[in-house]
Each structure stands twice: as structure tokens, then as C-alpha cells.
Amino acid sequence: MKILHTESSCGWGGQEIRILDEAQGMIAAGHSLRIVCSAQSVIYREAQRRGIPVATLPIEAKTLRGLWAVWQWLREHPVDVVNTHSSTDAWLVALARLFLPRKSAVVRTRHVSAPIKPTWATRWLYRKGCDFVVTTGEKLREHVLERTSLAADKVKSVPTGVDTARFCPGDKIAARQQCGLPPDKMIIGIVATLRSWKGHTYLVEAVARLQREDVLLLIVGDGPNLPNIEAAIAKHQLHQQVIFAGQQADVVPWLRAMDIFVLPSYANEGVPQGLMQAMACGLPVVSTPVGSITELVADGRNGLLVPERDAVALSGRLVRLLNDVGERDNLGENALVFVREHCSSQGMLQNMTGIFQTLGAKHG
């Protein structure tokens, strides 16, 4: 098949990583695939680094220039399926398709749990501007159905898969040596883009409440909320116990170096990749019941859940895990089994391929 992914976002996170991983999997399966994005975007540089065919268009904003560029590109490069990923590129593709003689099938993937505005324009975008909607979690699917009145067979949850051959348990001491981390500390870690809703500041407060000098907080990632996180660290006088690792091309050794993984998000989550990756590495995880996280973490079975924006509750759960190596091991083992059975990248690719092939056949 000829497949096009469009992404108007210039940022970086799980959404962009899924696009790249899915693209590589489709290419490996023999499909012709290209990504169209902004020249200023991180995904453009990462696609080039991975050897994925990529083109740039001015699609970072809803403009007539962007609409013309999308229409022209699709006219000159007809494809079987266009997979849109953000609001802006979804609108540009939907409007451009109205004026094309050969209309490709359009799939909209919705990655986040932000509310859909119940306007006539939004309903048109989901009902007429695309042919199928994919969500990254069942709760997101239910929200789409509620807000758009789409038929149930037009929306499917296809959670992001994790490469369990790459993300797997490893030697903690060796990982700490590789990352330059001390071998004699308990390390609580998070791997996430530094955005406000990821809850880093609540994690900083929770670690401060522990009042344990043997604990380090490891923050892997970069992003716009860095100043607020640094302010929270200064407020709680936690400088000596926080390590910023920045953006890492390979997060596997950083995950293996951790004792506990935490993702205290309070908004905009589907099924977070960082959380799945930590579970695939056999880590005990603590998170919140936001978005589709509860489809991944069963409280007390393969992880722990705390209310969002509650540093006191989060600190209590961390105390519980720090003091009980048996529970840490049990939760980590159960997390590993769950991800291997339910969250494989191969399953994601099979589901997306089936959707693309069905729609491509209907559109000739």
C-alpha cells in the first residue's frame, strides 16, 4: 500500500514516537510510506535519522498556504491512505481532499484525552473529514463516540505497542555504570516530555516529603516546563537529590537503572509509552487514573495508582514501595507479564495494517 502520515505538531513526545515506530514497521512489511511534517518539527529530524522517507510542508498552522501545499502534494503524490495525527493537519487534509479528483482514505488517530469540543465543525471533521478514527485507548474511544455520534464500527482503540525485545529487564548495576549513576542509592525515575500535565512538580514534592537522603529522583526528558520543575526543586531544597538526564535517544539503560518508575500525569493521556516501556523493563510503577492509564495499570496488581495532583498520596505510595522489596518485585514481574501479553508492537502493526487495507480497498 501507499501510506502517508501527516503531523503538524513541532513538539516531541509519545505521539511522534508512535508515528515513527509504526512507519518503520509498515516499511519493514513492504509498504510504501512517507511522513509529511513541518520543517521546524523534531519528528522531521528523527525521521531523517531513522531513514524514514519524509517531506516538509508548511502545516504547523491552519493557513491557506498550508492548505494549498497539502492539496498540491496529495495531487502530485496519490496514496491509498492518509493517517492524520493532530488537529491542524487533520483539518488541512480534510479540506484538501474535498478538491481532489482521487480521494484517498483518511484515518484520524487521536492520541490524547483532551476533551473534543462538541461543535458542528468538529462533528463534520470526524464524520465527514475522515473515514475512520483510531484512538490509543478504550476510554478515548468512548469519548470520541460520545462527542461525535459516530457509529461504533467507525472508531477502534489500537493502543501503542512496545518493542519487548528492546524494552526488557537488564543488569541494574551495569546500567547505572553506563549512565553515570551511583550504585548505592534508591532511584525513583520518570521518563516523559517536560510538560505541565505530566505532573513532574508533584513528583518533586512527593520525593521531598520522603526526607530520605538515600533516595535520588531521576528525570529523563526535556520540554517547556523545565523552569517550573527547577523552581519546585529550589522550593523544596532538593538540588542534591535530583538528576536531570535531558533528552535521551535510548532510554533503556536509564529505565533499567531505576528502582521505581512514576508518571503522575493529570491530563491529556492515552496509554503513555513511557509507562509501558517501564513496565516492559520489569519496574514497579506508580501512576494516576487519567486517560487510558487504567487500561494498563491495575492498582495493586501490576502497579499502584494515586489521585492526580496529590503529592501526599504519591509520597505515601513511594514510602510503601521503598520499604517493601517484595512488593516492588511482585508488581514489576506482573507488569512485565501484562505488557508482553497485551501491548506488543506487532499487535499494533497488525491492527493498523488491517484498518488501512480495509479502507484502501473501499477507496479503490
Topology:
Layout: E1 2-7, H1 14-28, E2 32-37, H2 42-50, E3 54-56, H3 64-76, E4 81-84, H4 87-97, E5 105-110, H5 120-127, E6 132-135, H6 138-148, E7 155-157, H7 172-179, E8 186-191, H8 200-210, E9 215-220, H9 226-235, E10 242-246, H10 252-256, E11 260-263, H11 273-280, E12 285-287, E13 304-305, H12 311-322, H13 325-342, H14 345-362
Parallel strand pairs: 1-2, 1-4, 2-3, 4-5, 5-6, 6-7, 8-9, 8-11, 9-10, 11-12, 12-13
Helix pairs in contact: 1-2, 3-4, 8-9, 8-12
Features:
364 residues; 13 strands; alpha/beta; seven-stranded parallel β-sheet; single chain; elongated; six-stranded parallel β-sheet
How is this structure best described in words?
By secondary structure, the chain is α/β, with parallel strands linked by helices. 43% of the residues lie in helices and 16% in strands. It is built from 14 helices and 13 strands. It has a 7-stranded parallel sheet with strand order 3-2-1-4-5-6-7, with helices on both faces. It has a 6-stranded parallel sheet with strand order 10-9-8-11-12-13, with helices on both faces. The chain is elongated, with a radius of gyration of 21 Å. The model has no long low-confidence stretch (mean pLDDT 95).
Number of continuous helical runs: 14
> What percentage of the residues does DSSP assign to strands (E)?
15-25%
The low-confidence parts are none
Secondary-structure element order, as H and E? Answer: EHEHEHEHEHEHEHEHEHEHEHEEHHH
Q: Within the largest sheet, what's the order of strands?
A: 3-2-1-4-5-6-7
Overall pLDDT metric = 95
- The rounded Rg comes to 21 Å
Total E-strand runs: 13
The major beta sheet can be summarized as: 7 strands, parallel
Distance between the termini: 11 Å
Shape: elongated
Structural class: alpha/beta
As a percent range, the share of helical residues equals 40-55%
